[in-house]
Structures are given as structure tokens and as C-alpha cells.
Amino acid sequence: MSQINIYEEIKKFVDTFDLNKDGFITSKEIFHSFLKRMNGNVYQASQATGVLCTTVDVNRDGKFSYNEIAKYCQDNARKMIEQNCEIAALADVEAFLVRYDKDKDRKLTKTEFVEYFKQQGGYTPYSDRDYVLKIIDLDKDGCVSPNELQEWFKRKRLAYAGGPKA
Q1: Sign of the C-alpha dihedral, residues 90, 92, 96, 98?
Q2: What is the rounded distance in angstroms from the CA atom of residue 51 to the CA atom of residue 74?
């Protein structure tokens, strides 16, 4: 997430919860903001406030600093990237299996997996396709399962997105 996007997220956060518009957000303002949004349900507003305060107010001073809010926004952006990569990886797996799982047993043998590299023009970032298979075949059974494929696709997407390493 770029600095500009983080700034915009922080501005939205502050605009939402800084009820007295003094540039600081207190737990009291958060509680009143939630209370209003939850139709006066004190219990739900109190729970939501507690969760948010323990998540964002790292130093427990009752106020949210710029750094605390920025970290919260960055962490949420990172989680969204991870979730999106996870979902996209599931779709990648299904498309991959449809195309390369010739015997339709929902796992790829070495022969089926090498077919993928052949169709990619033989290019692999590694000189040895067996090595790639060993990296992806996490349980070392000689086949690539849907879960192993999903983890591989997720790592590739996270690397491309510049997100956290899976």
C-alpha cells in the first residue's frame, strides 16, 4: 500500500472517529461513535470499542497516535492482500488442475507437472524441474496436491503484489 493510500485510510479513520474534530481519537469518542452506529446498544458498542482499542492503541494511553493508526492501516492492507491472494490462488488451482491433471485424480504427478513447464516454453527460474517439484511437493509424496498448488500460487501472487511472504 502506498504512502498516499495509507494517508487516505488514516484520514478516513480519523474523520470517522474524531467526533470533536480535535485531531485526536480517544476511546471515549470511539465508544460514542459505535454507540451511535449500533442504535444505542451499549454492550455491542463496548465490545467493539474494546476490540478496536486493544488493536490500535498499542501503548494503552487512551489515544490513537498517527503511528498507531498507520500501523493498523498497514496491517489491514496486508491482511487484505493475503486474503485476496488466497482466494485467487484457489481459482488458479482449479484452472491448473483442469488443464494439467490428465487422469483427473486432483493431484499432479511429476509427468503432469512437467507438462506445465513445457507449455511455458521450458522456462523455469531453476535449472532443474525436479528441484521445483521438490519445493512445491511439501509432503514429499512425489505428487502435487491441490493444497500444495494453492500454497505455491499464493506465494507467487504475494511476491508479485509485494506483500508478506507466505
Answers
A1: positive
A2: 17
